[in-house]
User: Which sequence fits this backbone?
């Protein structure tokens, strides 16, 4: 089984780049499932029904998210009827939507989970215990994929080892910067600290450069909008044994779209 996981899709440039490239990737790599983090797909801040529609049209099967999921009011109602868009499962009870999705590919059940870290983030319920509970709710599913949206690399690494042998893949999102540590952990879980993003190369994590610099150098409020220009697409391709759920390979697929 082949799964492609795509980093945070940033605004219109990121959505357009996926439309241009993802259909070919699906064919060339015979992909069974494509997951993308879409929490900044709407103008670089939040997600809307329209931005999600663009990602689905490009070939994404499941959209995960993170701390920016609530930036757009319409998402409160959208999550209620679109199960393919996940919000972190460790938000308090009563939050709209779900942090898990059970689907099937080629007769194999697949569980996709989304959790939010707590270090340097708004404190939520414990993501470690929340993921434990989700796994306990689906004890027979072998192929489990986890988007852990977190700031601290230490928290992400800890989560990878915590879930090693119990899930097929743990991939980090949120920093928009790809890490070079794609690996298979000792007990068979594929892991990468951060996928990166689908955003403009010459930017500050997707935002225009000078306003961002001004914000740091003046300490005054500055609005930096989405940058424009050629786009980097950061992703990982993972091969998983559908019988036992263990990963057999993980490979970065980083490419450039003019």
Assistant:
């Amino acid at each position: 089984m082949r799964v492609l996981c795509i980093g945070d899709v940033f605004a219109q440039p990121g959505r357009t780049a996926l439309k241009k490239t993802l259909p070919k990737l699906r064919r060339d790599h015979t992909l069974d499932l494509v997951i993308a983090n879409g929490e900044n797909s709407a103008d670089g801040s939040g997600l809307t029904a329209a931005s999600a529609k663009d990602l689905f049209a490009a070939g994404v099967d499941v959209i995960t998210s993170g701390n920016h999921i609530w930036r757009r009011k319409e998402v409160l109602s959208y999550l209620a009827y679109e199960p393919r868009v996940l919000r972190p499962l460790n938000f308090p009870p009563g939050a709209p939507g779900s942090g898990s999705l059970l689907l099937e590919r080629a007769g194999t059940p697949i569980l996709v989970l989304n959790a939010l870290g707590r270090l340097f983030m708004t404190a939520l319920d414990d993501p470690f215990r929340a993921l434990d509970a989700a796994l306990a709710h689906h004890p027979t599913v072998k192929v489990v994929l986890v988007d852990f949206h977190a700031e601290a690399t230490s928290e992400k690494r800890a989560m990878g080892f915590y879930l090693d042998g119990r899930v097929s893949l743990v991939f980090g999102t949120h920093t928009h910067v790809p890490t070079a540590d794609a690996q298979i952990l000792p007990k068979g879980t594929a892991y990468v600290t951060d996928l990166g993003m689908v955003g403009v190369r010459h930017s500050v994590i997707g935002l225009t450069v000078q306003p961002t610099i001004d914000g740091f150098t003046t300490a005054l409020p500055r609005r930096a909008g989405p940058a424009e220009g050629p786009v980097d697409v950061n992703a990982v391709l993972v091969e998983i044994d559908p019988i036992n759920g263990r990963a057999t390979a993980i490979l970065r697929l980083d490419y450039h779209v003019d």
Notes: The chain has one domain: 2-257.
